[in-house]
Amino acid sequence: MSFVEYSDCIQEGDIAIIYQSHDSMMPVKVQQGTQTQTRYGVIRHSSDLIGQRYGSKITCSKGGWVHVLHPTAELWTVTLPHRTQILYTTDIATITMMLELKPGSIVCESGTGSGSLSHAILRTIAPTGHLHTVEFHQQRAEKVAEEFKEHRVDHLVTVRNQDVCKDGFGVTGVADAVFLDIPSPWEAVKHAKAAMKRHGGRVCSFSPCIEQVQRTCEALVDQGFEEISTLEVLLRVHDVRTVSLPLPDFGPDPSAPTQPDGTEKTTPNQTSISLKTTVPPREIPGHTGYLTFATKPRT
Questions:
Q1: Which of 44, 145, 152, 231 could in theory staple to 2 by disulfide, Cβ–Cβ 3.0 to 4.6 A?
Q2: Torsion 87-89-90-92 (CA) sign
Q3: Per-residue confidence (pLDDT) for residue 258, from 0 to 100
Q4: What stretches of the chain adopt beta strand conformation (E)?
Q5: How many whole angstroms separate alpha carbon 189 and alpha carbon 23?
Q6: Cα 228 off chain centre by
Q7: Selection from 118, 167, 122, 113 nearest residue 143 by Cα
Q8: Whole-angstrom Cα distance, residue 217 to residue 277?
Q9: pLDDT higher than 90, residue 262
Q10: Which of 13, 8, 41 is nearest to 28 (CA)?
């Protein structure tokens, strides 16, 4: 099992996702002799998981059942242990697209946090790309490095425990893209520029406050970045429902057939019609953050 390569069967040491419902999932490390407790009873790893195909329906000890899924970046985002506030798939999808990431890309990231975005980047740049990620907090850096090794993607990533605003990313002239998720991104813009390749590249900064965005944009201009833009991604989910709409009465139909006595043949008066439609939400989920993008010109 690897987060960037698909496997058919569950093996010991794998990270598997136990799917109980669309809003109840959890990751488990598969080990011989280990049990996992769910709302439907116990799952015994030795007999219920190891050797089974991913996607299998597993019956628990109480008679209920769950599905066992192969881990993906999206599933890890909704099940990972939170050590920091994380980025979710709505923002992650926009970031990977706007940074123009692809297999073989070299990416610099700060800070690593809980590794939500990191896993999505690794899946996108595999098998020949590389991620240089910087985390200021020592314990978080050590933990995320352990997770990368456990998820078998450590050959694609280098984790550094340092202050990116003072010490940079530890590399120079190699990155195709840079991502900043730190309290003072404007202090790291010069280091981002130094880490990027001479032929240019893209940079993205995620900030929850507009004051941070303003200072970051000023720093980007000072460092010669171009095509600076800021956007906010808001998810608006429409509710699909059946509605009944009244039909207007336009009076007698001149083209309607007549009866032998010359009177108009009438049909039952249908006053309403039922149909499927979508209804927008009255309230939109709250603000996550602003995404500021810019391009380094060729030098």
A1: 152
A2: positive
A3: 67
A4: 15-21, 24-29, 35-38, 41-44, 57-59, 65-69, 106-110, 130-135, 157-161, 177-180, 201-207, 226-232, 239-246, 272-279, 290-296
A5: 38
A6: 23
A7: 113
A8: 42
A9: no
A10: 13
pLDDT at 247: 84
Based on C-alpha coordinates, what's the Rg of the chain? 27
The Cα–Cα gap between 69 and 72 comes to 9
- Distance, in Å, from the CA atom of 74 to the CA atom of 92, rounded to the nearest integer, reads 9
User: Phi and psi for 126 in degrees, rounded to 5?
Assistant: -65, 150
Is it true that the peptide bond before 115 is cis, omega within 30 degrees of 0? no
Per-residue pLDDT reduced to its tens digit, 177-186: 999 999 999 9
Q: What secondary structure letter does DSSP report for 45?
A: I
Q: Distance between CA 136 and CA 3 in Å, rounded?
A: 25
Average pLDDT over every residue of 18-42? 94
How big is the CA angle at 185 (ends 293 and 79), to the nearest 5 degrees? 80
**Other C-beta atoms lying within 10 Å of the C-beta of residue 269:** 7
Beta strand pairing status for 157-161 and 41-44?
unpaired
Residues paired with residue 232 on neighbouring β-strands, in sequence order: 290
Measured in degrees and rounded to the nearest 5, phi and psi for residue 206 equal -105, 120
Contact 208, 288 (CB under 8 A): yes
pLDDT in tens, 59-107: 999 889 999 999 999 999 999 999 999 999 999 999 999 999 999 999 9
Q: Which two tokens stand for residue 197?
A: 């390749």
The lowest-confidence range among 11-15, 87-91, 242-246, 259-263 is 259-263
Q: What local confidence, expressed as pLDDT, does residue 268 receive?
A: 57
Pairing, β 65-69 against β 106-110? unpaired
Q: Which helix (H) or strand (E) holds 92?
A: helix 89-98
Distance CA 31, CA 24 (A): 22
